[in-house]
Write a structure and sequence with these properties.
The strands form three sheets. Strands 4-3-5-6-8 form a five-stranded parallel β-sheet. A two-stranded antiparallel ribbon has the order 1-2. It has a two-stranded parallel ribbon with strand order 7-9. 39% of the residues are buried. It has 16 helices and nine strands. It is an alpha/beta fold. It is elongated. Helix 3 crosses helix 8 and helix 15 crosses helix 16. It has one domain: Rossmann fold. 50% of the residues lie in helices and 8% in strands. The N and C termini lie far apart (96 Å). The longest helix is centred in the N-terminal third of the chain and has 27 residues. Strand 1 and strand 2 form a beta hairpin.
C-alpha cells in the first residue's frame, strides 16, 4: 500500500466512502419552511397583541398599576396617597431618607397634628416631589398647613435625576402604561402587549416577591404597600450598616440643577402653606471632620433657593453608626430617635401648634451616646 493512501491506518478509499454517507444526509432548509414552522405561532401572538391593545384603548382592561417591584410599588402608593382624602395637616416630602428616617405615625403623636409621609426616591427631582404636594393640596383643600422637605446630602450632589423613575411616576399619574427600558427589547415588549398584560393584569393578580433582606422583612410588593398604608407612608430599612463595605465618599455639595428645581417646587406649594427644609443624617464614622459645617452651608443655600419659610438647622448632621441601616438610611431605632428630634426642631421653630416636649431629653441623650 502506498503510504500516502493511509493516515493513521485509515485508507483513502474508506474516508471517501464516509464522506459520501455524510453528504447523503444533508437537508435543504428554505425560507418557506421557516415560515410554515414559525408563521402560525407568530400569527397567534400578533393577534393577541392586537386584542390587548384594542382592549386597552376601549377601556376594557383595568387601569395601569405596575406594582412589579419595590420602587414602582412605592411610587404608586405615594402617588395614590397624594390624590386621596387624608387628615394630614403636615406632609413630608423628599428622597428615600425622608421615607425611611421619619415615622409619620410617631411624628403625628409628638406634634399633635396628623402627618403623612410622601417620601419617594433619591433618583427623582424636586419637581417630582412638588407634584405630590400639588396633588395633595388639590385633593384636600384648606387642610394642608406645612410641607417638610427632607433630603440626604448624598442625593443633593446627583447631577441628573433618573428619567426612567420620573417617567414611571408621570405615566401612572396620567393613567398611561408604563415606559420600559429603551432598546429593541423594550420596544418589542410594548408592541406585543407584554407591558399591558404585566402592568394592568399580572401586577393586580400576582404580587411580586421582594429580593434579599427586604423580601425577608416585607415579603411581597403587596405586603410592602400595606405596610406603607398602615404607617402613614413611612417605611423601615431592615439592613445593617457595615463601615467596611460602605461605598462612596462624604464630599457632599449642591448640584447646580437644584437652583431651578427649587423654584419649580416652591411653585407647587400653595400660598399660605409653610415650606420647611432640613437634611437627614449620615453615619458618624463615614463623614468628614467638616461634615457639620458643610451641611450647614448646603442647607443655607438650599433654603435660599427654595425661599423656605423655616430651616431645620438643629437636626443632627450625623448619628452613631449602630443607628444606621446604610449610608443614607436609619434603622428602626434610629428612625424613632430622629423623629423625636425632628418634632423638637419643628416645635422650636414654631412650626406646629401644640408643643409636647416631655420626651425630648431622652432622645438627645440616646443620639449622643
Amino acid at each position: 500500500m502506498n503510504p500516502q493512501d493511509s493516515i493513521g491506518g485509515t485508507s483513502t478509499k474508506a474516508m471517501t466512502t464516509a464522506q459520501t454517507h455524510l453528504r447523503s444526509h444533508q437537508c435543504a432548509f428554505t425560507a418557506r419552511d421557516l415560515a410554515e414552522i414559525v408563521g402560525a405561532p407568530l400569527g397567534v401572538l400578533l393577534l393577541l397583541a392586537a386584542l390587548f391593545h384594542f382592549a386597552a384603548a376601549a377601556d376594557w382592561l383595568p387601569a395601569p398599576r405596575p406594582t412589579l417591584d419595590m420602587d414602582r410599588t412605592l411610587l404608586i402608593h405615594q402617588a395614590d396617597s397624594s390624590r386621596s382624602a387624608q387628615d394630614a395637616t403636615v406632609i413630608l416630602i423628599g428622597d428615600s431618607s425622608c421615607l425611611m428616617d421619619v415615622s409619620a405615625s410617631d411624628l403625628t403623636r409628638h406634634l399633635g397634628q396628623p402627618t403623612l409621609n410622601l417620601g419617594l426616591l433619591s433618583y427623582l427631582d424636586l419637581p417630582s416631589f412638588g407634584i405630590l404636594v400639588r396633588n395633595y393640596a388639590h385633593a384636600n383643600p384648606e387642610r394642608l398647613e406645612t410641607v417638610v422637605l427632607l433630603l440626604h446630602p448624598e442625593s443633593l450632589r446627583l447631577q441628573a435625576p433618573s428619567a426612567y423613575h420620573r417617567a414611571q411616576l408621570e405615566d401612572y399619574l396620567a393613567g398611561r402604561d408604563a415606559h420600559t427600558a429603551g432598546g429593541i427589547g423594550g420596544r418589542l415588549q410594548t408592541a406585543l402587549g407584554a407591558i399591558l398584560v404585566r402592568g394592568r393584569l399580572e401586577a393586580r393578580v400576582i404580587p411580586a416577591p421582594l429580593s434579599g433582606v427586604y423580601g425577608r422583612f416585607y415579603g411581597f410588593t403587596r405586603d410592602f404597600s400595606r405596610w406603607l398604608g398602615a404607617h402613614r407612608g413611612s417605611a423601615i430599612d431592615p439592613q445593617r450598616f457595615d463601615r467596611t463595605r460602605a461605598q462612596g465618599n462624604a464630599e457632599y455639595r449642591l448640584a447646580p440643577r437644584l437652583e431651578s428645581e427649587s423654584r419649580l417646587l416652591r411653585q407647587c406649594v400653595p400660598s399660605g402653606v409653610r415650606l420647611v427644609v432640613g437634611l437627614t443624617p449620615a453615619p458618624r464614622s463615614f463623614v468628614r471632620p467638616d461634615h457639620e459645617a458643610t451641611c450647614a452651608r448646603i442647607l443655607e443655600q438650599l433654603a435660599k433657593w427654595l425661599k423656605a419659610d423655616a430651616v431645620l438647622a438643629g437636626l443632627p448632621a450625623s448619628m452613631p453608626d449602630e443607628l444606621f441601616a446604610s449610608v443614607t438610611h436609619l434603622t428602626g431605632e434610629g428612625q424613632t430617635l430622629f423623629t423625636q428630634r425632628l418634632a423638637a426642631e419643628m416645635q422650636t421653630a414654631a412650626i406646629v401648634r401644640t408643643p409636647r416636649p416631655d420626651w425630648i431629653p431622652r432622645a438627645e441623650h440616646l443620639m449622643q451616646e
